[in-house]
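thoughts on both lines:
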Amino acid sequence: MAKLEFAERGAGGRPLLLLHGFTGAKEDFTEWLEPLAQAGWHAVAPDHRGHGASEKPSNESDYTFATLANDAFALADELWGSDSPFVLLGHSMGGMVAQVMATQFPDRVAALVLMDTLYGPLPFVTREEIEAAVAVVQERGTDGLADLFAERGSPLDTPAHLRLLEERAGYAEFNDRKFRDTASAAYAGLLAAMYEADDRLASLRTLAMPTLVIAGEQDKPIVQPSRDMVAAITGADLAIITDAGHSPQFENPEAWWSALSTFLERVGSRV
């Protein structure tokens, strides 16, 4: 298991694990840890292996959904015990990892939040684009790819994201720092994992825990898959966050927090 750095608030409260996305970091959730603690949760946000301040194995083969899921379970075991269920939130790639965790060990996941994520392979990139990005990372590191993306933009540059870049001081630098802190092997390995991912929709039909699926209204590649997941998971709820793209916790925090906190209040008695 990789050693994970994590932020936490509310030790002794109900267990809640928050998993960030690809090239993200625990800081994607740290400003929400205190409000979660005040609501009675022991909220924990780790850096995935290869991200942020966590351990960064050097081989691309060390980066799969399974290895990230095992890391997350190991952290949960350390914090809460191997028999304790916890609420699990996964954002983007973290949501893909959360699906693996919930379908493999459903008894451990008391409730599930899938946020701006997919149940299958990435729909908005080609193999040629993947290979080109990996080639840049292997030659020039994530710094080199970050410089290239700064010139070309990203499919996730929604109007809400661009607005926030203008309105929130330091937000561009925050995102750039997270990207550059991602290990080259992690970028290459996990990009391949997302592109080559199995379709998990059938396995999601087996889930019975309370589930909330969140999607930013402007996150166009995500909205219909989110609806598909809600249709597949018995009793799942859907929250479409207006005026938000891929990161609604930043782009429309009030609406995002309302959806999340309402769900957590409802499921809190399960842990």
In short: The mean pLDDT is 96. The CA atoms of residues 191 and 265 lie 35 Å apart.
